[in-house]
Amino acid sequence: MEVLQRDPECSRPESCSVLESVSAAAAGKPLCCPNHEGKVMEFYCESCETAMCLDCTEGEHREHVTVPLRDVVEQHKAALKTQLDAIRSRLPQLTAAIELVSEISRQLNERKNDAVAEITSTFEELERVLHQRKTALITDLENICGAKQKVLQAQLSSLLQGRDHIQSSCSFTEQALSHGSATEVLLVQKQMSERVTALARHDFPERPHQNAHLDCQVETEGLRRSIQNLGVLVTTAAVAHTSVATGEGLRHAATGQHHTVTVTTKDKDGELVRTGNAVLKAEILSADGNRAAEAEVTDNKNGTYEVGYALRSEGEYSFALMLYGQPIRGSPFRLRAVKPSDVPQSPDDVKRRVKSPSGTGGHIRQKAVRRPSSMYSTTKKKENPIEDELIYRVGSRGREKGEFTNLQGISASSNGRVVVADSNNQCIQVFSNDGQFKMRFGVRGRSPGQLQRPTGVTVDMNGDIVVADYDNRWVSIFSSDGKFKNKIGAGRLMGPKGVAVDKNGHIITVDNKACCVFIFQSNGKLVTKFGGRGTSDRQFAEKLGPNLNKSGSVFSPHFVAVNNKNEIIVTDFHNHSVKVYSADGEFLFKFGSHGEGNGQFNAPTGVAVDANGNIIVADWGNSRIQVFDSTGSFLSYINTSADPLYGPQGLALTSDGHVAVADSGNHCFKVYRYLQ
């Protein structure tokens, strides 16, 4: 079509020759061979899929299969027509896609305009309120000044009047004495004496009746900080066709039971989206098209979402998951619900449950799943891995004993216990070194002894359990059996995340929100603090921007560990590094940079130190665990490929020398064999 629409008086010879050929073909004239002048193309080479003349068949195509052109014309016409029909059938799809993308583009512009209008009106209103306050302050200032001036002016008037009276009396008396005759002096003596005596005795208001104190104090620092963080732009790069859903609840459900499905959002290139706030909707419809159950979507704020539901009746259902109004990959899913008694028991069920010893049957205990090493043996040697294996994993998403929702910190005691901060369940769970559930404690609340969002946990020399409570803004101390003893840091801490205990029994707390580290005595007395917001060696990064949290910020220092020299090791999340300080908080050195290579980090979180001083770091964004020597030189990594991590948080070394990691994204903790 392009050739036929070109200007016939074309200056490009190749275009002209093609145009002539097409024109000739359209007129039914035989085509001339471009390689042999004057020869007509009447043969077809099947190997090269091209027309040619007789000379061509005897030349470069002599070893190819050639047939008369007229014999293959109809065959190729039919093939071209089939191909033409196939691509023509795509036109409605492309038209629909154009309309959809155009509509999204229109909505995007519309929402941008709405947001601009909202921002403009909000700030205009703030300007109006500021102007009102300015006017009110100036008015109050004028009133106060006017009242003070009135008092002072009245006093001034009285003093001036007194001064004038004295001056006039003095002048008159001096004149009488100097120039008056004896008779005149005697005539006015009595009157003048009384006047002078009265003036001498008169109590003039010589002391000030007011002061000049009138200042305006405007505290702007906090307001400026608030203004700098005012407004959050909420968006995400997630798209439906690359986002996926996983979980048994996609296909099978037991009636009357709560089921969850995990949706992992991805961008157009299939890369994981690490932020929340995507618009995800779930709908479960029965065979007759009616809504069968309400599905609840929980945003984990890390790019993943939990969709929970419960079905009352058996049957076949359609389970649709829509991201920004578009179905995610595989949606809608066919969901079948059966009675709980009809659910087949899996022999290798990860969640093997036994009745509680209490005999009530109401509580359950989750047993650790020990995996034989042969399951994970591999013939391919990885680059410099520590030869280890996953010993066991404990947990899945849930609220029962041995289940977790967004677990964060993890610690280990010298008497063979593993202690886990189950953040979104507002409790602490304790297990044995081999993964057996032992106890759970914690009540949700904001009073002393209650937990609102436990993030960091450690065990001190006395066996007491020390818990950093991010939302309560303090550190709680419990006995080894879970009884509340004390809280420290209230009024000082803004958002404690990681916690550790040094050789002196001091409690070292990472204040994630204040971007600094506090060192307390066990009784709560502050020893010192260090750090601050920034990118220098002594500071911790604060990331500002949209999609982060209510204030528009994500704060940086996360977890802390103490080595055998009593040095403090802190993970700096947004500086993608690990920083080492003396026991007094003096900066010593740091290691790490942003990336995926050996010794690089994509937002480090958990940290632990082994008996040899080696530093073990959870690399959250790269979902791996790396090992460094005491100077920060990369040694190796722990091979977690058998059961991949997803957003690891806290790290700890158990008393029997294994590495325990809080695998937050998978709602479990895992224990790996580790060769020191």
From TrEMBL:
GO terms for biological process: nervous system development; proteasome-mediated ubiquitin-dependent protein catabolic process; protein polyubiquitination. Filamin repeats lie at residues 235-337. It is an enzyme of class 2 (transferase). Its EC number is 2.3.2.27. Keywords: Metal-binding, Phosphoprotein, Repeat, Transferase, Zinc, Zinc-finger. InterPro entries: 6-blade_b-propeller_TolB-like, Bbox_C, Filamin/ABP280_repeat-like, Filamin/ABP280_rpt, Ig-like_fold, Ig_E-set, NHL_repeat, TRIM-NHL_E3_ligases. Residues 28-69 form the B box-type domain. CDD domains: Bbox2_TRIM3_C-VII, CC_brat-like, NHL_TRIM2_like. It catalyses: S-ubiquitinyl-[E2 ubiquitin-conjugating enzyme]-L-cysteine + [acceptor protein]-L-lysine = [E2 ubiquitin-conjugating enzyme]-L-cysteine + N(6)-ubiquitinyl-[acceptor protein]-L-lysine. Residues 339-381 are annotated as: Disordered. Belongs to the TRIM/RBCC family. GO terms for molecular function: ubiquitin protein ligase activity; zinc ion binding. The keyword Membrane does not apply. This is RING-type E3 ubiquitin transferase. Coiled coil: none annotated. The keyword Transferase applies. It comes from Betta splendens. NHL repeats lie at residues 393-434, 438-481, 482-523, 556-584, 588-631, 632-675.
